[in-house]
DNA sequence: ACCAAATAGTACGACATCGAACCAAAGTCA
DNA sequence: TGACTTTGGTTCGATGTCGTACTATTTGGT
């Protein structure tokens, strides 16, 4: 298998696994929550409150337009609160509400429970071993994207 | 990191890499072709002609409704031809047209060229090493999905 | 042979995502 | 200070994907 084919195969597999895992999440998340909403809640929880929409969009690797939409959904459900950014009039800051925190916990519970049956089938060591590779690939693609859209 | 967290992290990383690679493809595929169309053309080329839409949908891990749409797009561009299935009145068969073949080659050329700059940054051995893991994960999720929707 | 259940594909409505165009606030530089 | 550029977010239109409901054909049991 030459390099190009390997790379195609690799990304093809990545794409399919991603689709399957997202489908899994979408099926098991409570109340019609979409995996992207879930990911955003988790990000807010991990990174902490007061982040700007753009920062979240970059972290999630979606466009800012998409993040506007995602945050609007979360805000309508009162899972996050969006305030003006005191240090920049163009910007906003995003906060997880208590309801958002609770919802995240509940969602994690549901997903974890649903995952219990399959989780045991995964080879923990193998997953752990491929993580650095994935992260490196992510960084490379990310840099390429930034470079493309930024300069050039 | 406990098992659940590892799995979450793993799928999160997979999702992001998938998004980035799809975005990369979408940016570099000619004539507004979407990565899913590209993947379908590649599948038809690899697996051979005369496959049914459902078989393609399963291989691509999308719903049959989605495949109906994808094939309609490809057919409108005359990259595939869809005929009745002689052995099953409900079914169809899909064929790559000469134009479809040519388009696929051109697309591969474009993408490969665009990828040349980043391809050298990938650690070939690492990608190769994580492929089996990805394939195993795919199989597990796939089986779970089939089980869920089929029985239960 | 007939009727029920399963199956392949389509139609429809909902929604996530994207790119491009746009607006408003900062920043920059003369 | 004032104009040009950059930057954070939103709006808009287009499109890919999904789930559900539906149609037509096939399969299977009696």
UniProtKB/TrEMBL annotation, chains A, B:
Listed GO biological process terms: response to stress
A GO term, aspect molecular function: DNA-binding transcription factor activity
Signal peptide: none
InterPro entries tied to this protein: HTH_MarR-typ (IPR000835), MarR/SlyA-like (IPR039422), WH-like_DNA-bd_sf (IPR036388), WH_DNA-bd_sf (IPR036390)
Residue stretches making up the HTH marR-type domain: 1-139
Superkingdom to which the source organism belongs: Bacteria
PANTHER family linked to this entry: HTH-TYPE TRANSCRIPTIONAL REPRESSOR YETL (PTHR33164:SF43), TRANSCRIPTIONAL REGULATOR, MARR FAMILY (PTHR33164)
Protein name per UniProt: MarR family transcriptional regulator
